[in-house]
Amino acid sequence: MTVGTHARRARVRVTGAASVAVRPVLEAQRRPARVLAVFPQGVYLEVRTDLEPSVIAVITGEAVRLPNSVLLAAHLPPVTVGDDASVGDRVIELGPLTLGVRRWWDPAPPLGPLDAATLAGAAALLDDPPNPGLAGNGTVGLLASSCADGWLLGAVTAAEQLVGLGPGLTPSGDDVLAGLLVTLRHLGTATGAERAVRLAGWLAATVTYDARTRTTPISATLLHCAAHGAASPEVTAVLRGLAGRQALRPALRRLHRLGHTSGSDLAHGIAIGVTAILALSGTQPPEPNATVDLESREPNATIGLESPERTTMSGAPATASGGMP
Amino acid sequence: MTPRPRAALLDAPPHVITVGAGLLDEALRAQAVRTTTVDWRPPLPGTAEALATVLADPRRQAANERAVGRLLSARPHLAGVRRASEVLPAGTFLHAGPPITWERASGPMRGALVGAMLLEGLAGDEREAGDRLAAGAVELAPCHEHAAVGPMAGVVSPSMWLFEVNDAEHGGTAYCSLNEGLGKVLRYGAYGPQVLERLRWMDEVLGPALAAALERTGPIDLRALMAQALQMGDELHNRNRAATSLLLRVLAPALVETASEHAASVLRFIDGNDHFFLNAGMAAAKVSADAARDEPGSSLVVAMARNGTDFGVQVSGLGGRWFTGPAGVPDGLYLGSYGPADANPDIGDSTITETSGLGGFAMAAAPAIVRFVGGEVGDAVRATRSMYEITLAEHPAYQIPGLGFRGTPVGIDVALVARTGLLPVVNTGIAGRVAGTGQVGAGLVKPPVEAFTSALLTLAQSVSDQF
Amino acid sequence: MSDTPAAVVVRRGAYHDSVALMRVSRALSDLPGVEAAMVAMATELNVTILRELGFTVPEAGPGDLLVAVRAHDPGAAVEEAERRLATAHRPQAAAQEQPPLTTRSAAAAVDAGLVLVSTPGEYAFLEAYDAVEAGLPVMIFSDGVPVERERQLKELAETRDVLVMGPDCGTAVIAGAGLGFANVLTPGPAGVVAASGTGAQQVTCLLDRAGVGVSHVLGVGGRDLSAEVGGLSTMRALRMLDDDPATELIVLVSKPPAPEVARAVRELPLRTPVVPAMLREGGPDLTEAAEQALRLLGRSVPEWPSWPAWHRARPSAERITGVYSGGTLATEAALITGSRDIVDYGDDAYTRGRAHPMIDPTLRVEALAGAAETDVVLMDVVLGHGADPDPAASLAHAVARTPATVVVALIGTDGDPQDLHRQAAAFREAGAAVFTSNAQAARHARSLL
């Protein structure tokens, strides 16, 4: 086996820090992996496993701390796409490096209790992220209005259509969904908006169900992470800002700077989530037009959200309880 | 230093400044935690307790901020020139550095004093001048104690002319003699006939001509002029070529208008002396540093000066007290066949430039200086960078283009000197050891550690007395 | 003394930290032809040691570096020492860059969030003061800072709204990052405020073993809860953890506080439950405190792993001696066993001018060698960041050779770089009984008498 050959060469032991999201994969039995993509500050590894995250980002320097990443306290090794690697038994073997973890970070830190009025006050700043990849897209509009109305079928339908929609490694549709998922999960929990948290559960089940076949491997992994509330620090900082725990404007600016449109798309998803939480918890949302359709929806769909087992969804809300394992 | 807004410590693993055991820094790096490592050394021997006392003095931080704030905000203007007889107390000669007696005076200091006696007609010859000085016929006082500074021997006698510089911000005034040029000159201890002849011409022609011209121009903003000169490659201690040119440009029309008879000779004299501006710059530095004086609790150095025997410093929080150590022999390049054996220990008040963030502290602005004091361009940059470690501020107007227009390091803190063991970098000329020789070279000199440590210990004592 | 030629060279004013010097000394001693080597600052203690080793030491002060070797070619050994010292840990700076020489200038140059001070104690105040003055929280690993200075620092910190951890703060964990001697912990709901580093390590390692993660460990220094210091850092740390959304429960590890300080701490309005872990006669031990925290968090208490000795203890055991590196663990052992022969080699008296026993095993190896056949030696082996990368390498050998019966309290987590299971196996192989709970180790030792 190729991996075996690697192991016989002189290996360099290095250390780093890892997101606890990758812990199950890292601590499982060793699995073969392959280099999926190489960037100046990061290498994506695809691991042959049924566990998630199945893609692990080995990063260095100032690269974005994706929720599936392991931060190397050394330079990246010279590897190319397609190279063999392995993950498991507490180490990552990549090129000549054997990487062990010396620090764990939580990509889904709790926000603590928050009252909806505070959230409503902060929400106005979320308007108009610059250059969202799906500006004016009807499906995104449907997602937003369905979430705000608590119309489960609409939200799930829109989400299914958005998975993998758009160009790039992380398509815009996935970024919007990821932003929405972590927002519903964390700010929903923080404000005690149970309906929002349940909505997160349903959406999480929907987008992770067949993500591996619907979008790029890295984006699928990030959707799995978002389903558990795990995100990069740029997203977490905006959630914290919305919760009044840090300055929101600079956090938003940092988020907007991510990727081509990723940051704006994530911010778009966050905005949809906040509007939904405020609407579902009965607090006046900041933008009246966001709730224009509220009255015209069928009431029974809203009830369906309260008790998901009565809806006609296929697949169970596997991650409805939320939180990291 | 203004405190940063509080970062939320618990939100994310912090960027850690580590100081001390390298092992703990390595352990953090192994966790991919960003660290910045302080290259720490124990402070100068015997200062640890005094440093803790001075650092913990509740007055210190605000006192230093006020003191250095005044040093930075001073707006020196060249207001005119005056004959020293108008400023000096009768029967007194001024000299550079901390107080000194004839007995302890070095060769060049003695030479300059003898020259002044001859110039003033107080002695017929060299021997008589020496005898009368030894007998105390003239009172000797440091320039610094009369709001003045003087380069090298810094001797000022009544018939010499002085630049007068006013601080438009704080209202102070400082004086400095007129520069005679290089080579055989009084300030390097020469007193031959050509030296005295030049001094007489300066008294009779140069002084009055400059007085009239400056009256015509009105006060000249030296802060702006010096800022510009730094950007033109001067460091304003050992290189004043740009500043001299800038000053000449302002003075020339006024000289022509007010002293047409002598304009050409005056302009030629200034043009022939690249250091003509030095003395005006020193007065500007002096008036700025004086603004920072007398702030109780402040550890800011407000004067560094040498008399050829002792190197002395004064500290804002300690009034007019001098703290001294033996003056060192500069290390540098020598003129002609002179060598280190011919060199006198360090002399002059020109270290007022370093005191106010110029000279050695601004070396990075003047890469050409390395041809003059030895070393390489990298040394000049390193010298300036290292001085940020012992200074309290960066000058808002005096900037260094090569360092991204960073302000020069300004405001030496005796506590930081003791903590880092890093002594101020001083550029200087080298005087001949034997009276009458003149300049023998130029280079860098290391101030004596004890001047700074004794100032620190006294400051610590004053804190203990306070509480 | 030996006939091998010796040399002692003084390098005036050359400073290196004690760990760097220990590493060079060790590397030098391992060279062929070198009989003895010690590279150390010329502190009183080190000079005495060198004289005892038979070296003639020239006049030198604590600011000077001594290179002492006895070797076939002492000149070459000294050269090797200098070469290694030159490459010892130094900030990497470009040719014309100026590394910061003080905390003050470092704080002005970078946007840092915390300062870690580990200079010799007499200078630690200066660097810590810089940090607080710049508005930065600081952890002072160094000990030997006078209590008045500690008070001054903490009063200044109140005005700047920052936390001072220490002096003598051996352990902290901030959002997963271990500072000083800390273990690799999983993020989780338990926060710790600790006046004792090894006490915090014992508690967090047990929690980690029970599957409960740790949000933060904020050290405060051993004297913080004294009347002189007034618990300023403890109260600030408690408020910070109370305000931290990740923290659901706080364990407060300390010695019994001064009564008026205890009152002030009790009166703090906190929403988060606080479990005290205070060692005192008849009180709960650290393991019991960790167990109480687990119950409050609704978790079950597991069996704490231990590995019995391969051989039964000698029946002749007469007394328990302690060879500890952690002060609080030593105190706990003394409380449980009642023995007066528990020595804390991490105390000031043993660490002046030399590295901590968690890094430098020399003194403990000597103590094991000197133990009697009738002794039960109780010792701690603390794993984690900053600690000896392989304590078994030196200590297990000493355990195997000592005539005494040895009981080891192995403090660490599965994530620690030293590999807890390999360490446990090595000590067990050497004949020791190994426990992950120090209290259980102490009770076991008592049962052997």
TrEMBL record, chain A:
InterPro entries: AllH-like (IPR021530). It comes from the Bacteria. It holds the Pfam family AllH. Residues 284-325 are annotated as: Disordered. This is DUF2877 domain-containing protein. It comes from Nonomuraea terrae.
UniProtKB/TrEMBL annotation, chain B:
Coiled coil: none annotated. InterPro entries: AllG-like, OXTCase_su_AllG_h-dom. It comes from the Bacteria. Pfam families: AllG. Signal peptide: none annotated. Gene3D superfamilies: conserved protein of unknown function from Enterococcus faecalis V583, Enterococcus faecalis V583 domain, v583 domain like. This is DUF1116 domain-containing protein. It comes from Nonomuraea terrae.
UniProtKB/TrEMBL annotation, chain C:
Residues 323-446 form the ATP-citrate synthase/succinyl-CoA ligase C-terminal domain. One of its GO terms (biological process) is tricarboxylic acid cycle. Transmembrane segments: none annotated. One of its GO terms (cellular component) is cytosol. It comes from the Bacteria. GO terms for molecular function: succinate-CoA ligase (ADP-forming) activity; succinate-CoA ligase (GDP-forming) activity. PANTHER family: PROTEIN FDRA, SUCCINYL-COA LIGASE SUBUNIT ALPHA. This is FdrA family protein. It comes from Nonomuraea terrae.
